[in-house]
Amino acid sequence: MEILDYFPIRGKLSRGQQERLSSSAVLKNFDKGTLLHNGVADCNGLFLVQSGQLRAYTISDEGREVTLYRLFEGDICLFSASCIMRSIQFDVTIEAEKASGIWIIPSETYKSIMEESAPLANFTNEIMAARFSEVMWLLDQVMWKSFDKRLAEFLLEEANIEGTNKLKITHEAIGNHLGNAREVVTRMLRYFQTEGFVKLSRGVITICSPDALRKIGKN
To answer: Hey, what domains does the chain have and what are their CATH numbers?
Structure first.
């Protein structure tokens, strides 16, 4: 994707603003597991995902992680440029969940264009609203949905992302996504295995009955 392809309102930007966005962007490649952004004090710039996959998560005082959302090819990450949005007052960590290519637009450049362009400011606010909606959905899931349902839905979502029912993921990684201890994940996965829903092996979870997991998620 070209830089301007990330912005559906590009036609409402002046030629000079378009050129500033495009010319300021730098493409960087990151290995899997690399921390790209760590908290509100870290204002790296606007991230545009060219390839790969990013994970945005928060960490509790006890050190427990919970995934807020993921970013894929074509997505824009605003939290990496948190200094341009005064409303962002909480820490979000962003890591490369897979090897990723990221376009980075400097925060100062993006903020200056946003201050000039109402269409870009509105588009930015729409992205922010969508992200907060995802966070609120997650909060609702954590507070009101039982863990077996959340785990079943996570496994199905992961299979959809990876394009396979054979998932190479650890119990600890799942716990980090869902905000639960590894031991809790292991107990529930073992229950799923006794019911024939999944098969567990070292570092691999094979989904044997997607329909059964869907039924758990709906109940």
So the answer is: 3-143 (2.60.120.10), 145-218 (1.10.10.10)
